[in-house]
Amino acid sequence: MSTDTPLRTADTAPTAPVTRTRRTLGWDAAIIAVTLAFLVVASLGVEHFGTARNFGFLVLDLAPILLLALPMTLIIITGDIDLSVASMVGLTSSAIGVMWDAGLPLETILVLAVVLGAILGAVNGFFVAVLGLPALAVTIGTLALYRGLSYVLLGDSAVATFPRSFTGWTIGSVGWMPNILPGLLLLVAVFAVVLHATPAGRAIYAIGANVTAAAYAGIRVMRTRFLLFVTSGAVAGLVGAFWTMRFSSARADNAFGLELTVVAAVLLGGVSIFGGKGSLPGVFAGVVLLMSLQNALRLERISTEALTVVTGSLLIISVLLPNVLARVRTALRRRRPPEPDQTPTAAPAAQRKESP
Amino acid sequence: MTTTTRPPSAAPERQDQWTQRLRGLFGARILGLVLALAILIAVTTLLNPRFLSGQSVRDILLAAAISVLLASGMTMVILTRGIDLSVGSVLGLSAFGTATFLSEYELAVPLAVLLGVVIGSLCGAINGALITVGGVPPLVATLGTLYLFRGIVYFWAGGSRISAGDMPRSFLDFGTARILGFPYLTLIAVVMAIAVGVYLARYRSGRDLYALGSSPEAARLAGIPATRRLMGAYIMAGTLSGLGGVLYAARYGTVDASAGNGLELDIVAAVVVGGVAIFGGSGTVFGAALGALLLTVINNALPSLGIDQFWQRAIVGALIIGAIALDRIVAVRTAAAARKATTHVH
Predict the structure, then answer these.
(1) At A237, is the pLDDT very low, low, confident or very high (cuts 50, 70, 90)?
(2) Rounded distance, CA A221 to CA A241, Å?
């Protein structure tokens, strides 16, 4: 009990960040362990799962979710959300098709796709960070708006005349290593370093934990939130380029409905929807778990319908389980007789915390 | 003498003005929606007189019926600072369930209808339990059950579809029958929306939902049974989605596992356009129903206006952003006016 008390009152003490990291590390460790265990079991038990060929497919399937999950993690940690990511992918994909039909060189187009994504993200950021409108409502609006504009651009036709040199490279691999993997891992590393080892990353956590306190601490809240939405848009533009090259087809309905899968993967990775909590290693593990599970189910010829059930259940369990465990722990603690406390000043604070 | 009597009388007067201004604001949203609807219908009819023909109006009323039902339930939930993303999946589960009970098990129509609605209530109870007992945030819980319930429909259906021929005539007639020119389904939706509206406006437990959304802490301290109220709101949202599923089966006749797929965002859009604050505590079912009607009319008007159907989503998106931006402007102005009023008194 005496060792427990300082931990419980730490919310108000200067050691608060330490306890928070410890708590999230616990969840991270759990999800990473589950993911590793699943990968081992699947490699041994599922035929063809561990092959280089399947690994290539897994990386290609995983890439868009993982890429979109990186900025989404940062945005959800600040307490916002971006539901328009899949529509931004669709709109950049349509734009790529239109620009290619207009005869622009593909190198220029792919760069412009990222720029266009950043502009779309800046529109979100303007409404959310500058005007202060709720992110959920704004990005539901731009979800419809961007998807609508992508239909306006391309209708229900498709552009599929991209040169093989580009589309082939995107899905190709050198031996065991898919061509896109190094770039993918590099981006993961960049986001992880920014979030966990820079002042900007601390600022993101601070905004999510308490936006007013963050503002008083001198964090430029508006600028940070705005830039995160721009980043989300730029990454969505990149995914739009990847998606178009991978399937060699620019279509208005590309990546339709992907936003919910991305959010599910991020939450599965231990990020709190209320902000302030979560880590990139956890999200990485969450994405890998979700996508390799899907991959394994497909190899086992279990219908993709099962996957929707699994996704939903995992998502609920990932939040429900820690809650239930915490409740059981408090119930057990309450049952124990109260010991004489070593730190009398901390006791009232702890009781006040527990009373509601 | 006059100067001494003035201050006490001024305060209630100002308060009166204050409530009047609030009422004016509430009315402004409704007025705006009605005006937008009227202009849209007038312009469309001018350009294409067939838009107001009986069949076209009935199509709109039928299509709006299901949206209005779901929007009513969504309003209850959003008022409490929650959200229900599973409504589309619940509708799908209930529609497929009702159709299966009728075609495969050949149950009597009223029984099948009742079971369809009960499916919705059960789904709502699961959402409510996850949120209140499990402590799962509403967005996460209902995103999870969006997948879960949809997965169950896929399992149940296994790729099959139930067509109109498999269902009893009386059930399908019910989907198209009219009373005084009004489709039955629309009438059901209107009655339910009015019931929810009166409940929210007049009943104590209905007002509790507003209190929970305005300030959950204050509501709890005031002794409002939060768990029970939230549970009730989610069960009601589920029940209305279940009823929506029954109406869907009756109206379209053909039901497969993807019925209502992606509907949740349309419903949230309708509610937000209807002036319900996404973070709870303010808004009316009347507004939400008008929002749903407006979106349906836009859907139907675009082809009549000769505008490419592809513009529909873009327009809806712009409308949502316009609506919340408008809300923000109004809120800032009211806050400024309130500050002015209080500083004046002091």
Answers:
(1) very high
(2) 31
Residues of B in contact with A143 (CB under 8 A): 265, 317
pLDDT at A16 over 50: no
pLDDT digits (tens, 9 = 90+) for B30-49: 888 888 888 888 888 888 88
Name every residue whose Cβ is closer than 8 Å to that of residue A109 and which is 6 or more positions away in sequence. A96, A99, A100
Range of the domain at B274: 31-345
Tell me the per-residue pLDDT of B152-207, one tens digit each, with 9 for 90 and over.
998 888 778 888 788 888 888 777 777 777 788 888 999 999 999 999 988 999 89
Count Cα neighbours of B302 within 13 Å in the Cβ-side half-sphere: 15
Is the Cβ of A280 closer than 8 Å to some Cβ of chain B? no
Q: Note whether residue B287 is domain-resident.
A: yes
Sign of CA dihedral B260, B262, B268, B270: negative
Task: State the complex-level ipTM.
Answer: 0.76
Chain B residues whose beta carbon lies within 8 Å of the beta carbon of residue A147 = 313-314, 317
Q: With a CB-CB cutoff of 8 Å, which residues 131-190 of chain A face chain B?
A: 131-134, 136-138, 140-149, 151-152, 155
Reported as a single tens digit per residue, the pLDDT across A71-109 is 999 999 999 999 999 999 999 999 999 999 999 999 999
Name the burial class of residue B216, with classes exposed (0-12), middle (13-18) and buried (19+) by CB atoms within 10 angstroms of its CB.
Answer: middle
The torsion angles phi and psi of A174, rounded to 5 degrees, stand at -105, 105
Average pLDDT over every residue of A314-336: 80
pLDDT (0 to 100) of residue B25: 53
Is residue B241 helix, strand or coil? helix
Number of domains in chain B: 1
Residue B276 located in a structural domain? yes
* Secondary structure (DSSP) of A312-351: HHHHHHHHHHHHHHHHHHHHHHHHSPPPPPS-TTHHHHHH
Question: Exposed, middle or buried: residue B215 (CB in 10 Å: 0-12, 13-18, 19+)?
Answer: middle
Query: Is B24 domain-assigned?
Result: no
The pLDDT score that the predictor gives to residue B232 is: 95
CB contact under 8 A, A137 and B278: yes
Burial class of residue B181 in the structure, from the number of CB atoms within 10 Å of its CB (0-12 exposed, 13-18 middle, 19+ buried): exposed
Domains (ranges, CATH) in chain A? 19-299 (1.10.3470.10)
| Whole-number Å distance between alpha carbons of A177 and A52 | 8
What the block records as the tokens of A236 is 């969505």
CATH value at residue B67: 1.10.3470
Q: Do A141 and B320 touch (CB under 8 A)?
A: yes
Does residue B69 belong to any structural domain of this protein?
yes
pLDDT of A26 reads 67
For residues A148-168, average pLDDT: 89
DSSP letter assigned to residue A356: -
